[in-house]
Amino acid sequence: MSQSWSHCQKRPPARSGAMITNTNGNQVGLVTIGIPSPSLKSQNIAMGNIQSGHHKSGSKLNVLVCGKPRQAEVVKMPFIESNFYHDSC
Length: 89
Known about the structure:
It comes from Puccinia striiformis f. sp. tritici PST-78. Pfam families: GCV_T_C. Strand 3 (about 25-35) and strand 4 form a beta hairpin. The protein is an all-beta fold. It has one domain (about 1-75): Beta Barrel (Elongation Factor Tu (Ef-tu), domain 3), CATH 2.40.30.110. The chain has a six-stranded antiparallel beta barrel. It has strands at about 1-10, 20, 25-35, 45-50, 60-65, 70-75.
């Protein structure tokens, strides 16, 4: 299993334990965390464990939210480039 970020459609976010499927409906992973994105307007993000072969950036997957498949795309981390500066003392 590989851990990747997934960018999901607008709607309720996926929750921990939600099933991740390929476009044929076969399970390929599970969501470990899903939240509304604090940086992307009206978008959700999720992180999960995904089987090798489905974890490549750009892969199209589905996440089951409330029993309904929602489109998702695997993206590289960091999800959003940060200009955060931390001065270590």
